């Protein structure tokens, strides 16, 4: 039996899905209302899953007293109440789909030293979620990933 | 293979403290969870059992039976209890989400005889949880 620790955080941000390589008409066709020129926003949920041994002295995989300020500094301060396209440097030349936002947040969180960040799942709305696993994947995770992929693609409407 | 999940809720008190640490260390490591008077949560436990549905009943395991097992093994032991003092399975352990989830896994594993215990997810609050898998 293995144990992981999960913690959820929230931020609110705006974005616009638009790729300058495509024509205006193509952008509208591809991204639909998410291409609306002035952007729109979501209440994002960031779910962080940490793996590692449970320290017998503390009963913890990681101390949330360390994780919370780390996530606040690395993710919440950078994204909360921001226009992701313009105010998060990594998205200057990258379409801020939640797939890409999820990747970027994982990239920031994987630096956490006290435990291994096994997965990061972002809920863009209560109907859409996007999940990335670190490199060391296990059987359960691979299956779970596939299971969660299906409804996302059907239900996606940003 | 099909996975079936049953959810249950219980309310319990706990606090975090390790006698091996000084009072100051306990406060630093455990923060407000170290308050010796304890505090409480409405815990939510989701138990997942994996298996093939029986050809006759169409069920991996009757969810009513899973509900009864959860009642007997988990809720009767933990609901409206103080996890530091009243749950032998947690004796000598800091009753964190990680340790409670593992204790629930250990209580349930042998009791699930149809299908196989696949996952125990224990929520201390909607934003903090631990998950045990095989």
Oligomeric state as shown: heterodimer
Largest sheet of chain A: 5 strands, mixed
How do the helices and strands follow one another from N- to C-terminus of chain B?
A: EHEHEHEE
**In angstroms, what is the radius of gyration of chain B?**
16 Å
What does this structure look like?
The complex is a heterodimer of chains A (158) and B (134). Chain A has 158 residues and is of the alpha+beta class. Chain A has helices spanning 24-31, 64-79, 84-87, 98-109, 139-155, and strands at 2-15, 40-51, 82-83, 116-123, 129-133. Chain A has a single domain, classed as Tetrahydropterin Synthase, Chain A (2-Layer Sandwich). Chain A is built from 5 helices and 5 strands, in the order βαβαβααββα. A 5-stranded mixed sheet of chain A has the order 3-1-2-4-5, with helices on both faces. Chain A is elongated. Chain B is an alpha+beta fold and 134 residues long. Chain B has a single domain (2-133), classed as 2-Layer Sandwich (Tetrahydropterin Synthase, Chain A). Chain B has a 5-stranded mixed sheet with strand order 3-1-2-4-5. The longest helix of chain B has 16 residues, at 63-78. Chain B is elongated. The A-B interface holds A 1-9, 49, 54, 56-61, 63-65, 140 and B 16, 18, 20-21, 29-31, 93-99, 101-102, 105-106, 109, 118-119, 121, 126-134.
